[in-house]
Amino acid sequence: MSKRRRVREVMRTQVLTVKPETPFKAITVLLTSWRLSGAPVVDDEGRVVGVVSQRDLLEREIRHRLLRFRPRLRRKVEGRRADELMTTPAITVAQDAGVDEAIRLMEDHRVHRLPVLDDDAKLVGIVGRSDLLRGFLRSDSGLCAEVRTEVVKRAMAIDPDTLSISVHNGVVTVRGQVERTSMIPVIVALIRRLDGVVDVRERLTAEMDDSHLPIEEPVGTGVIEAFKRHS
Predict the structure, then answer these.
(1) H or E element that contains 163
(2) What's the sign of the alpha-carbon dihedral 69, 71, 76, 82?
(3) CA–CA dist 226, 231 (Å, integer)
(4) pLDDT of residue 1
């Protein structure tokens, strides 16, 4: 059974960062020059201590304008650095995390990119929404072939020719009859795990209703454990 794509497979390894002591104006130049919404703030050991964003800079600029008639306080605002402007703690993701986990983090925290950390919590890359969407840029024919071979034939031990499987714009439709009703949710869950699947339309029937019985594991497949983890 194919595995979910990992963050390290889609992340970008060239990351523009700033130091904690980087001043406001330098950060502004960096973000505007490279058209970035934000950048990780990294210490001398390569660890992410925060993220400074355009929003952080705009909030600072608003405060600055409000204090324009109070020179003493204005000078104090102008002297601020990245470690005073940044949002902390930074929302990060491990390089071995699944793409689906990174998507959830972005949605939960309403961020557009995530610094990627290695096992030592050091910065090794960055991943954005466009990077995560690469997994969905698959041909329908290639995705259909993977459903037939990896899910139906290999994982479920079903002859793929006994089912009708089609894919249109990433939406998988599977029709036909399987042996038991308990197999249907497992098939759907495993199809959803494949990179590039937008949705699954299940049109399956079963010869036998075994919904009241324990699910039997096809020998050596690990299907049931996978179903429990991802259903």
Answers:
(1) strand 163-168
(2) positive
(3) 8
(4) 47
In this structure, the chain runs to a length of 231
Q: Roughly how many angstroms between the first and final C-alpha of the chain, as a whole number?
A: 16
Residue scoring higher pLDDT (65 or 182): 182
Contacts of 112 (CB under 8 A, 6+ apart): 37, 38, 106, 128, 129
Distance CA 137, CA 188 (A): 21
Q: Which amino acid does the sequence have at 206?
A: A
- Structural domains in the chain, sorted by start: 7-135 (3.10.580.10), 140-230 (3.30.70)
Closest CA to 148 of 136, 128, 162: 162
Q: Which helix (H) or strand (E) holds 189?
A: helix 183-192
Contact 106, 112 (CB under 8 A): yes
Three-state SS at 39: strand
166 has pLDDT over 80: yes
| Residue 197 contacts residue 142 (beta carbons within 8 Å) | no
Q: Show the tokens assigned to 79.
A: 């002297």
